[in-house]
Amino acid sequence: MFKYLVALLSFGLAIWTLPEWFSVGSCLLKPWLLQPTAGLLHQDVLALYNGNRSSKGLYLAILGQVFDVEKGRKHYGPDGGYRFFSGRDASRAFVTGDFSEAGLSDDVSDLSPSQIVALYDWLTFYEKEYTPVGRLIGRFYTERGEPTEALQQAEAHLTEGLKLKAQAEEENRVYPACNSEWSSAAGGRVWCSEKSGGVHRDWTGVPRMLFSPGSGRTRCVCVRLDDRTRSNNPHLRQYKDCPPHADSCLLSQD
Ligand code: HEM
């Protein structure tokens, strides 16, 4: 008798956990049978977690990583200002700010390296603030949970973006930006101070135009005249009608 009871219980348990066996890798089962806790979710399962009345909860995905954002229901719930992020991966919109249906896409292939850096900053935010649920099968993860080429490309752009960011920070340290002001009566003025460009330092420097060959643009930077190597940079130009040692220059109208 006991033997039959054990067999019956085992059979019952096996039937009960059946959906979990299939939640990784198979789309044959109806979405409502699939359990998200197994670590991999299909898009149609994620869509059930959009916070609507009949929904199973509140999830969103970014770069293929799924988070439970129930804690932020005021943002992501049906009445929240960011409800369109729920139940989907709209990675692209996190950096473009395009919240139209077309803009709420997971295609990040044409974003610039610096946009990809900003996107990973959002991912870090979700990792810190919300509970991870798993990975979304689709653009960034395969049926087996492996990173796709799209994710590898995003990661390569991240590396490049971080390098460019570090270079820009170093350039800003060496050539801090000037303060600037403009009024219709007095015109423009640029000047240097020991805090200009957000770089706290023990020197002031003099304003110079720094030409960026890549962008074709110029910006005002503060240059240490006692540092020969840096002040002799061929991409630096003096402001017209401004004495070479002045720490403030009026901008001519022409
Ligand atoms: C690319 C553009 C933007 C994106 C992707 C974005 C996204 C978000 C997201 C996802 C949240 C919720 C964060 C959380 O889970 O706590 C949030 C919160 C917030 N956003 Fe935005 N946002 C954007 C632009 C803006 C702009 C332009 C403003 C202001 C003019 C703004 C104001 C706010 C405020 C005030 C909150 C916090 C609300 C609160 O804590 O009650 N956002 N944003």
Helix and strand topology:
Layout: H1 2-16, H2 18-22, E1 40-41, H3 43-46, E2 59-62, E3 65-68, H4 73-76, H5 91-96, H6 113-129, E4 131-136, H7 149-174, E5 179-183, E6 187-191, E7 206-212, E8 217-223, H8 228-231, E9 236-237, E10 248-251
Parallel strand pairs: 1-4
Antiparallel strand pairs: 2-3, 3-4, 5-6, 6-10, 7-8, 7-9
Helix pairs in contact: 6-7
Domain Cytochrome b5 heme-binding: 40-137
Family: Belongs to the cytochrome b5 family. MAPR subfamily.
InterPro entries: Cyt_B5-like_heme/steroid-bd, Cyt_B5-like_heme/steroid_sf, MAPR/NEUFC/NENF-like
What structural keywords apply?
254 residues, alpha+beta, Flavocytochrome B2, Chain A, domain 1, 2 domains, three-stranded antiparallel sheet, 8 helices, elongated, MAPR/NEUFC/NENF-like, Cyt_B5-like_heme/steroid_sf, Neuferricin, Cyt_B5-like_heme/steroid-bd
Whole-number total of structural domains:
2
Rounded average pLDDT: 87
Q: What is the CATH C level class of the largest domain, in words?
A: Alpha Beta
**Spatial gap, N to C terminus:** 101 Å
CATH topology descriptor of the largest domain: Flavocytochrome B2, Chain A, domain 1
DSSP strand count? 10
Q: What is the CATH H-level superfamily of the largest domain?
A: Cytochrome b5-like heme/steroid binding domain
The number of helices is: 8
